[in-house]
Design goal:
The protein has twelve helices and 13 strands. It has helices at 2-9, 11-62, 67-81, 102-115, 162-212, 228-281, 283-297, 304-335, 348-358, 360-366, 384-401, 464-475; strands at 84-88, 94-97, 121-125, 128-135, 140-148, 154-160, 344-347, 369-371, 379-382, 410-418, 423-431, 479-484, 487-496.
């Protein structure tokens, strides 16, 4: 029903309906004109004819023509025009009649004289009077010319009027039938023309509707014609291309603007976070430096060894502050995507061996056994500088927290290859206490302290695992920690050699 209503509202239906109405009105106008004009025109034509016949007869008598020739000519005129001619003298002596039934003619003339009134007169001029006679007695209708010739004869010419009315009726019926046929044929033609005419308009409507919904995929199919609709289609195509390009540019600009705003927000957040972290973590070393500096100034301890100790504490705390600030800056840049990685293919086994070598003093001091297959050759693709930081953080944390369990005190490093995924998994396990379940996710946060073992005495800054998290997030690789039966295992993944 809704579709039908929409069809009635369409331009195509309106155009079709208007064309059909116009054709129907034209046919009705033809019928009306035929009814009004045809009879009047016929009367006018016959009136002119009988007047010409009157003039001809009158001239013939004036020239004293031969009666036989005149009668022959009058018969021919009467036959060609389908009317009767009757001529008589003033004494009612019949001179000529084309009607074989003389008494009928006389009766017709008599009735005409009796019924003639001013209302019946069609035309009058001098000796001529043309009237429309309706003879109810004989149930006939005719046109009668009554005139007086110059020689004194009375001339009567009668024309039957019934054929005129019948002709009008027949003509009207024919026009109606023809009009219906024309209307049916025209309706098909109008349907085709309206479809042909409105098809590009419908197409343009679909295109503009999609354009309103910012869909510029559809274009107007240009025709070979050079009309206004084709020109409109060209303009809409041009407008569509320009709008698409403009909106695309606006989206790109908007995207860049959003990135700039996001970047600004990140920088602002990074600044706030940095200030918060630094202000929180530097309170202790600044207080220590301040206290020992005041002690030196006030000469609390006068001996050289005490002053040297105070100076060493100040220097140690200053170095810790410097390391902390540098690591915080590096962490901020990693977390907010400000670092570019110089990825290369390198041997991860060699890198781990180098980290173990650097930590050899701590390993020997704590008498820790290292379990690692150092003879392999496993290539990965990453930035070796940042991966060394990850391994160093895992390994130094393992050294700090390694304890003897079941007469076993060791650190075990494993490398597993997953060729299907193209990944290398590096795990660092140390014997010792497990990490409490509620702390497993929290240890990756900056400055988080699980217990008293993570304090300033171990020399750490408290952001090592946060650095690991930031580096791995940049690579979008997996990392984590797992509690084992006799210790803790930290792991991370890298991409295989490219």
């Amino acid at each position: 029903m809704e579709k039908l209503k929409n069809n009635f509202k369409s331009v195509r239906f309106k155009l079709f309906f208007i064309m059909c109405i116009i054709i129907a009105v034209i046919v009705l106008c033809l019928v009306a004109i035929n009814s009004v004009v045809l009879e009047s025109f016929y009367l006018y034509s016959k009136t002119k004819t009988v007047r010409n016949v009157y003039t001809k007869i009158n001239n013939y008598y004036n020239m004293n023509g031969n009666d036989e020739n005149l009668q022959e000519e009058l018969r021919r005129i009467a036959f060609n025009n389908n009317f009767d001619i009757f001529i008589e003298t003033d004494e009612n002596v019949i001179v000529f009649s084309t009607d074989k039934d003389l008494y009928t003619t006389i009766d017709l003339i008599t009735n005409a004289r009796n019924n003639l009134t001013d209302d019946n007169v069609i035309y009058t001029d001098g000796n001529i009077k043309i009237s429309r006679i309706n003879d109810k007695y004989n149930n006939i209708s005719y046109i009668l010319l009554s005139g007086r010739l110059d020689n004194g004869y009375n001339l009567y010419i009668s024309i039957p009027a019934v054929p005129i009315e019948e002709s009008v009726q027949i003509s009207n019926q024919a026009l109606i039938i023809i009009g219906i046929i024309i209307l049916l044929i025209s309706s098909f033609i109008a349907s085709y023309i309206s479809k042909k005419f409105t098809a590009p308009i419908v197409q343009l409507n679909d295109i503009t509707d999609k354009m309103a919904r910012l869909d510029f995929s559809q274009k107007y199919r240009l025709a070979d014609t050079d009309d206004e609709i084709n020109e409109l289609g060209k303009n809409i195509n041009t407008m569509s291309d320009k709008l698409e390009a403009t909106i695309k540019q606006l989206r790109e600009n908007n995207s860049e603007l959003e990135k700039d705003i996001e970047e600004k927000s990140k920088i602002d957040e990074m600044r706030k976070q940095f200030i918060s972290d630094v202000s929180h973590e530097l309170k202790t070393p600044i207080a220590l430096i301040q206290g020992y500096a005041e002690g030196l100034i006030e000469n609390v301890n006068s001996d050289e060894e005490s002053r040297k100790f105070y100076a060493e504490v100040i220097l140690d705390e200053s170095n810790k502050m410097d390391t902390l600030v540098k690591q915080l800056l590096e962490l901020m840049k990693l977390e907010y995507g400000k670092r570019e990685f110089n990825n290369t293919n390198f041997n991860i086994v060699e890198l781990i061996n180098e980290v173990i070598r650097k930590c050899n003093v701590m390993i020997t001091e704590k008498q820790i056994k290292i379990d690692f297959d150092s003879d392999k050759n496993i290539m990965v693709n990453a930035d070796d500088f940042y991966i060394e930081q990850v391994i160093t953080n895992y390994f130094t944390n393992a050294i700090k927290h390694t304890k003897e369990v079941n007469n076993d005190k060791k650190i075990e490093i494993k490398i597993q290859q997953n060729e299907e995924k193209g990944k290398i998994r590096v795990s660092v396990f140390n014997t010792g206490d497990n990490i409490k379940e509620e702390h497993l996710d929290k240890i990756w946060g900056r400055f988080y302290k699980e217990d008293s073992s993570r304090n300033r005495s171990d020399g750490g800054t408290g952001i090592g695992l946060a650095l690991v998290k930031a580096i791995m997030n940049n690579y979008k690789n997996d990392y984590g920690v797992i509690n084992r039966e006799n210790g803790v295992e930290f792991y991370f993944e890298l991409d295989s050699e490219k």
